[in-house]
Structure formats: structure tokens, C-alpha cells
Task: structure prediction
Amino acid sequence: MSPYPNTPVSVRPVSVRSVSVVNDEIRALWQRSGGLLSPDDEKEYQLLLVEWAAAAGTSVRPAA
Result:
């Protein structure tokens, strides 16, 4: 079973980078955006969160 059950195949991370590398990208995205994400930035942010969770071995899904 895929660790990304609700994520289309085309957007699943191909390789897992380290948590710190993905974290740096997330921080850079927020800094670049000035704290207000455009729709494209939001898509990138969501993908980075999924990648971060995979690298950290956690889930980004909220607890029920």
C-alpha cells in the first residue's frame, strides 16, 4: 500500500530528501512569499509537507 494513498502518482515524491533540506525549502518558500502564499505557492507548500512527512517518517494527516 502506498504511503501517499490520496496523492496522485504524478505528485508523489520520487526520492526522499533529508528533513533538514526540505525544511530549508519550506522556510525559503515562506520567506519568498512574504507570509502570504499564492495558489501556486500553496501547491508547492503542500507537496513539500508531504515530502517532509515522508522524510520524517510521520503523517501530515490530522488525527481524527
User: Anything to note?
Assistant: Residues 12-56 form one domain.
